[in-house]
Design a protein that fits this description.
This protein has about 375 residues and is an alpha/beta fold. The protein has ten helices and twelve strands. Helix 5 packs across helix 6. The structure holds pyridoxal-5'-phosphate.
């Protein structure tokens, strides 16, 4: 790290907010200030009492509005984030055998959890090369299809289309939900952690569940399969219906999610958020395509994520050095996902990130590369 050249960006190239990380991502300062103003009335009070339950209720109803959920879909919350949800799904959502589309670190992790579960059959794992995505393949033995709307580690998005088969469709939407259009008819469970698009804190999962998803949860919840209570989807469902979680949630996270949902609805809802991500991704990818030293990592424009951009550099320019120089200038978390081993930057374009800040970021990178 001692060989990082010191390059100071001129003020006009420094974005107004330097947070471009893909999770935890930029939190709205307005929401933080509002949380502070709650003083003695919210943080430090019981999550089983009306004040906190009203916040959970507002999240559940706000999500119904934001995602235009059909009346018979339910919003369920639990503690532990998407990673905990995978474990819960292994107990309470997969009956015998699941099919996983593996095209990056996160989609691969869910498949690994299931592969290790002694009560389940070996999952069917369909892989694609890094930078692309596979499609589900109907299989009569499969009772759950595990899709990932946006592979945060590679910057690949895929359309959410229900395979022509019976079986529950469960979508990891952690870095997609709230920034990409989705039709509720195409999934049974759409789950995510709120520290990505929703600009809140980690440690929580939120899932939209269709009637078929609820049936599966009820069925496995009533079966004699042993399930740790913390991971029980049946308990999560029962508690969510009462605007609670099974165990104690982080109240600050709940507050930030509630305010983010309200903000997105005020701004024009999901259409507004998706439009903003589209505009931002246009800025970043058109810059990457025209820069002589950089190019979008995902070659197929249709698969390029509108929420998380991965941009590769030619061999002569070390992306890690660029990210370090950016960091020295207060521009944070632009480094690529380490395990991928690419010479690339990864840039979040979530709705909270100002398109004008992304514009400045691209100019800042040009400025740095010219001087390296
Ligand atoms: C971040 C992320 C996860 C993991 O979320 P945690 O809250 O850390 O459990 C899972 N899937 C995707 C697609 C993600 O982006």
């Amino acid at each position: 790290m001692s060989s990082i050249p010191s390059i100071e960006l001129p003020a006009e190239l420094v974005p107004g907010d330097g947070r471009f990380g893909s999770g935890p991502s930029k939190v709205r300062t307005e929401s933080l200030l509002e949380l502070g103003v709650t003083g003695a009335s919210f943080l430090g009070t019981s999550h089983r009492q009306p004040t906190v339950k009203a916040v959970v209720g507002a999240i559940r109803h706000g999500m119904e509005d934001l995602f235009s959920l059909p009346d018979n879909y339910e919003v369920v919350l639990g503690v532990g984030g998407a990673t905990a949800f995978w474990a819960s799904a292994a107990y309470g959502l997969i009956e015998k055998k699941s099919q996983h589309l593996d095209f990056g670190v996160f989609s691969g992790k869910f498949a690994k959890v299931v592969a290790g579960a002694p009560h389940l059959e070996e999952p069917e794992v369909i892989k694609a090369e890094i930078g692309s995505h596979p499609l589900p393949v109907p299989n009569p033995e499969v009772d759950l299809y595990a899709l990932t709307h946006n592979e945060t580690t590679t910057g690949v998005m895929m359309p959410i289309v229900r395979p022509e088969a019976s079986g529950v469709v469960a979508v990891d939407a952690t870095s997609a939900a709230g920034g990409m259009a989705v039709d509720p008819d195409q999934y049974d469970v759409y789950y995510f952690s709120p520290q990505k698009v929703f600009g809140a804190e980690g440690g929580l999962w939120i899932a939209f569940v269709s009637p078929a998803g609820v049936d599966r949860i009820e069925k496995l919840g009533a079966s004699d399969r042993w399930t740790p209570g913390f991971l029980s989807l049946k308990l999560a469902l029962d508690n969510s219906r009462k605007d609670q979680t099974t165990n104690t949630p982080a109240l600050a996270t709940l507050f930030l999610v509630k305010r983010q949902v309200e903000y997105m609805l005020e701004m024009g809802g999901l259409d507004w958020a998706v439009g903003r991500c589209d505009r931002s991704s246009e800025i970043v990818y058109s810059w990457a395509e025209s820069a002589e030293y950089a190019y979008p990592f995902v070659s197929d424009p249709e698969k390029r994520s509108t929420n998380v951009a991965t941009v590769n550099f030619v061999d002569e320019i070390d992306a890690g050095t660029v990210a370090a120089i950016l960091r020295a200038n207060g521009i944070l978390d632009t480094g690529g996902y380490r395990a991928l081993g690419q010479n690339q930057l990864r840039i979040a374009m979530f709705p909270n990130v100002e398109p004008s800040d992304l514009e400045r970021l691209t100019k800042a990178i040009d400025y740095i590369v010219e001087r390296m």
